[in-house]
């Protein structure tokens, strides 16, 4: 995937492999807040199942809870992320990067709580234990320059790092060394080894 570009409203410009699916699950950032933290997640719905519509449907509040016995536990949940990176490298954008997506929940980073206030959330279609695909890493390499051009991102963490004991994603299968190398992060900007 070639480099991506954000427009002045925080949405990716039209590009093959990029889909826009605006989620109602967001709100405004506080005045003066901009995203300086990137938060990596993983998601699969039902757990361990890839390629369906369930993730998008969850973020758009239209999930069919009766489609699988595991799904009713999500009933009433209102969540989103800025982006979803599919197993094939396709990217779905749900929320403008200038808005607060509801991805981190109870969380803290560098002594500050409520990471949604100052972060951009990227969901990787996957699980803690299934290796992420080369296509997903390539999609991240196309996406990150656009994000860094418009936002003062200075650190990246997994959900597991900002909500320890509550979350485990993106898990041990996420290759932080590769991610850092391919996206120009300094070691100090990545999670502690």
UniProtKB/TrEMBL annotation:
Main location: cytoplasm
Pfam families per the UniProt record, alphabetical: Amidase_2
Subcellular location: Cytoplasm
Keywords for this protein: Cell wall biogenesis/degradation, Cytoplasm, Hydrolase, Metal-binding, Zinc
Entries under Gene3D superfamilies matching the protein: Peptidoglycan recognition protein-like
The keyword DNA-binding is assigned to this record: no
E.C. designation(s): 3.5.1.28
Family matches, as InterPro entries: Amidase/PGRP_sf, Amidase_domain, NAMLAA_amidase_2
Hydrolase keyword on record: yes
GO molecular function, one term: N-acetylmuramoyl-L-alanine amidase activity
This protein's name: 1,6-anhydro-N-acetylmuramyl-L-alanine amidase AmpD
Source species of the chain: Pollutimonas bauzanensis
């Amino acid at each position: 995937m070639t480099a991506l570009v954000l427009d002045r409203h925080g949405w990716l410009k039209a590009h093959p492999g990029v889909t826009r699916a605006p989620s109602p699950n967001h709100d405004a950032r506080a005045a003066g807040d901009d995203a300086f933290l990137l938060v990596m997640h993983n998601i699969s719905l039902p757990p361990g199942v890839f390629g369906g519509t369930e993730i998008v449907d969850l973020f758009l509040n239209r999930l069919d809870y009766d489609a699988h016995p595991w799904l009713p536990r999500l009933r009433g949940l209102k969540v989103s992320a800025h982006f979803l990176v599919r197993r094939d490298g396709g990217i779905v954008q749900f929320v403008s990067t200038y808005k607060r997506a509801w991805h981190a929940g109870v969380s803290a980073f560098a002594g500050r709580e409520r990471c949604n206030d100052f972060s951009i959330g990227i969901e990787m279609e996957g699980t803690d234990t299934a290796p992420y695909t080369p296509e997903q890493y390539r999609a991240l390499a196309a996406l990150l320059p656009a994000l860094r051009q418009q936002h003062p991102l200075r650190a990246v963490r997994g959900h597991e790092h900002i909500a320890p004991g509550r979350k485990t994603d993106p898990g041990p299968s996420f290759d932080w060394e590769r991610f850092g190398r391919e996206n120009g992060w300094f070691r100090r900007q990545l999670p502690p080894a």
